[in-house]
Amino acid sequence: METLNTSNRGYLYGMVAVIIWVGFILVSRAGSLSALGAADMITIRFGTAFILLLPFIVKYRARLFTPKMFVLGGTGGVAYGFSAFSGFEYAPATHAALLLPGLMPIVIAVMAYLLAGERHSHQVKLGILLSSIGIGALLIETLISSTATLKGDMYFVLACFFWGLMTVLLKRWKVPAFEMMLAIVATTCVMYVPVYLLFLPIALDQVSTSMLVSQAIYQGFLAMAIQMVCFGKAVQMIGATKMGALMALVPVFASILAIPLFGESVTVGLIIALVSILLGTFVGNLPRRWWVSKVAVVA
């Protein structure tokens, strides 16, 4: 019974992480449709998180402001944030829903192979291939139909590159997850906020208070803190494989909600990408024993 309870709680944590991920895509797109620019969104996200996490940042400060941590903040904070939020300015939420959670595992796997020498099983390679087909279909369709949207898609691709690089470095340097979160928040604020206040256009006074509050709560609290905790708990309780499969729900839910909320259209490329990424995610995350049993039956 204890195992069942632990499993159920793990799935609950996992679904909370998925729902927050879906909301992040929708809230970010809503922010980009207002007067807020990428520069403002980064400040809201990391500035809010910095204030909320300040007691922990002070406590662990000796470990957070090192050269390696600044590299993590530069890639997973400033570079990823600017790329992702710039993408939301040009591309629809449906594209973000497919490219961000769909392309990230591919980029991480490729960079882990190139930079860390990690070897991947045939099932992981098959999953990457299936997801890549869908992403390729979406990008080709966008290239033909809209250069403005393609610009947004390229920003999402760039965001995945920076997040993948940070992930590989994180694993190589063996930084604990909680310290990683604190370091990204702290170093991003130190590097970016002064530049934002002194040199970049500020549009915070051009949107309603409700928009600022909703963005601050979602970006700085839910997406930066709660989601990471829930994701980590889910991985501990149900395993990385099952959590990876749950993440395949993000593009489905986000796309379904984005279409009526923002009036986004359903295209052939979008459908192909959605199906391919779903298949690729599930295939890549199936337990190895499942493949072994199937091969044994065929043999």
UniProtKB/TrEMBL annotation:
**Compartment(s) of residence:** Cell membrane
Q: Does the keyword Cell membrane apply?
A: yes
Q: Name one Pfam family in it.
A: EamA
**Protein origin, superkingdom:** Bacteria
Q: Which GO terms describe its cellular component?
A: plasma membrane
Where does the EamA domain start and stop, copy by copy? Answer: 9-136, 151-283
Alphabetized InterPro entries for the sequence: Diverse_Substrate_Transporter, EamA_dom, EmrE-like
Membrane topology summary: Multi-pass membrane protein
Membrane-spanning residues: 12-30, 36-58, 70-88, 94-116, 128-148, 154-170, 182-204, 216-232, 244-262, 268-286
Supply the alphabetized keyword list. Answer: Cell membrane, Membrane, Transmembrane, Transmembrane helix
Tell me what this protein is called. Answer: EamA domain-containing protein
